[in-house]
Amino acid sequence: MTNYKFLEPYTFANGATVKNRIVIPPMTEESAMADGTVSRDELHYVSLRAGGVGMFISPVANVTPDGKGFEGELSVADDRFIPGLSKLAHAMKGHGSKAILQIFHAGRMSSSSVLRGTQPVSASAVAAPREGMETPRELTESEIETIIQSFGDATRRAIEAGFDGVEIHGANTYLIQQFFSPNSNQRTDKWGGTVDKRMTFALEIIKAARKAVDDYAKSPFILGYRISPEEVETPGIRLADTLHFIDTLADQPIDYLHISMGNAWRTSLNDPSEQTPTILRIKKQVNGRKPLISVGSIKTPAEAEKVMDAGIEFAAIGREYLCEPNWVEKVEAGLEDTIHYSINRAELDDLGLTPILMTFLEGMQANIPFEGESENKQGIEASPILNE
Ligand SMILES: Cc1cc2nc3c(=O)[nH]c(=O)nc-3n(C[C@H](O)[C@H](O)[C@H](O)COP(=O)(O)O)c2cc1C
């Protein structure tokens, strides 16, 4: 069966058309060079997966050197990275996928070891409530302004490198989320306090990125925003705060909203009485003002179609795309029966999956199925990068 809705094209309000509704979400393979330059391993990995999907979102790239969160992370913090990023964009765009560069600052989710002796920074000097996390240094107002401009500069570099868009990473506990969270943002100036003030950093970043698009893009350039709906800490982000934030985001000059969750259909992490899947609460709030990307444990064509049936514009397929680099092509060719849902360890090189990525996946308890091995039952819910 090839008449799935997810195979239909989509045209954004800015005029950019993507050939179908399947997205590869950002997945770092920790394979960049030590300074953040794109590596051959990374080019190999993306080349194998490009072409089928409508949009291919890159592994995350830091916008400033002190925004680096982990080893093997891409960087877009300087013009010298443009030639490598240009190769990455070219590889991701193979056969017509739109290439989107995800950009971020890790904030307190970094360490002085990753930053080679520099103390991580955040909205406030509050360590992430996780084992072994360091207390960050509170950013000054002028440093905040510099980071905001860095997102604009990164967007300009993405345009020069030939990407079709950027995704601002406002999710997964990194700096933009840290400014929105009452846990990590305890400031009393214009960047903190009320929920509206805690949105300011994100909104200024959108403004800076939009200005770069308006100034430099010569064809319709896609500007996306990724958000995590909730945190489990107290204090922490609750769904009501997020719905308020989403209401504001839906009126911003962005082209899509990407809702980061480990399971696309999960309900609230904090309120057991809330029975409606969070994605549907968000969809109702957005009320058609922006297209949504839903992500989290979507593997089969039927599961992707269920997202379409709910009126959600895009379905992102992450870990399953590690197992099956030709997922869309196989659906289009009527070869669904041949889609791989597990990884054969003997074929890691053919799949472009490096030993570093394998170790990373184990560390995050990513619950990847390997042929002939029982699944890791601790599963995805244990991992904040996948869940929050
Ligand atoms: C290996 C790996 C790396 C990831 N890296 C990123 C990243 O760079 N940026 C990001 O926003 N999310 C990242 N994620 C989260 C994914 O984008 C996605 O939200 C998550 O894997 C859930 O989707 P799935 O169930 O289809 O895998 C990563 C996930 C995995 C498994």
What key attributes describe this structure?
14 strands, 388 residues, binds flavin mononucleotide, globular, alpha/beta, 12 helices
The SSE order reads EEEHEEEHEEEHEHHEHEHEHEHHHH
Report the C-alpha radius of gyration, rounded: 19 Å
Q: Give the strand line-up of the largest sheet.
A: 3-4-7-10-11-12-13-14
User: Could you say which overall geometry the principal axes of the C-alpha atoms support?
Assistant: globular
The CATH superfamily name is Aldolase class I
* Main sheet: strands, sense, barrel: 8 strands, parallel, barrel
- Total domains, how many? 1
From the N-terminal CA to the C-terminal CA, the straight-line distance is: 35 Å
Q: Percentage of helical residues?
A: 25-40%
CATH C-level: Alpha Beta
Structural class: alpha/beta
Q: Would you give an account of this structure?
A:
It contains twelve helices and 14 strands. It is an alpha/beta fold and 388 residues long. It has a single domain, classed as TIM Barrel. The strands form three sheets. Strands 3-4-7-10-11-12-13-14 form an eight-stranded parallel barrel, surrounded by four helices. A two-stranded antiparallel sheet has the order 1-2. Helix 1 runs parallel beside helix 2, helix 3 runs parallel beside helix 5 and helix 6 runs parallel beside helix 7. It is globular and about 60 Å long. About 2% of the residues have low confidence. The structure holds flavin mononucleotide.
